[in-house]
Write a structure and sequence with these properties.
Elements lengths: L1 H10 L2 H17 L2 H16 L4 H16 L4 E4 L2 E3 L2 H15 L8 H18 L6 H8 L4 H11 L1
Antiparallel strand pairs: 1-2
């Protein structure tokens, strides 16, 4: 739209004006009334503060970053952690306990864990995977398969 407006202002050709009007009509049909109101508000806001728009944008981005940043976590009602290393250790401990992840697992525990997973699968999973498909699950993922999966997911 901006390129069309610039081209129309520079050339003043009727054809450019007609294409600009068609593009504006398409945009107006796509946007709801609320979107148009918000767009108009932001245009007015930046128009009123035209000399300060760079600073305003920086403030908006900083506010957004501050909202996404985790500055501290509360471990219990009386104790908060602010240091990043301690926060990472707390997260690690929490999720290790949540998923029952053990640092050193001896092979017998690993075998019993696999047996438990197999028992759960046999009792709860209703659909069976054919033997041909089971063999391909253990094979390495090929680059071509990965490309196809990425293309179909987008």
């Amino acid at each position: 739209n901006a390129a069309l407006e610039l081209r129309h202002k520079q050339s003043l050709v009727d054809k450019d004006f007609v294409t600009l009007l068609e593009a504006r009509k398409k945009l107006k049909t796509l946007l709801t009334q609320q979107h148009l109101h918000e767009l108009q508000k932001s245009r007015c806001f930046f128009g009123e503060h035209s000399k300060k728009c760079g600073r305003l944008l920086v403030k908006m981005l900083k506010k957004r970053q501050d909202n996404l940043h985790i500055g501290k976590i509360r471990v219990n009602p009386h104790w908060t952690i602010k240091h990043p290393r301690e926060m990472a250790e707390t997260f690690h401990k929490y999720y290790s306990a949540l998923y029952d992840i053990q640092e050193t697992m001896n092979p017998r525990d690993n075998a019993s864990c696999l047996a438990d997973m197999n028992n759960y699968g046999f009792t709860h999973v209703k659909k069976q995977i054919p033997m041909e498909a089971r063999d391909t699950l253990d094979a390495e993922i090929k680059l071509q398969e990965l490309n196809v999966a990425i293309k179909t997911s987008s």
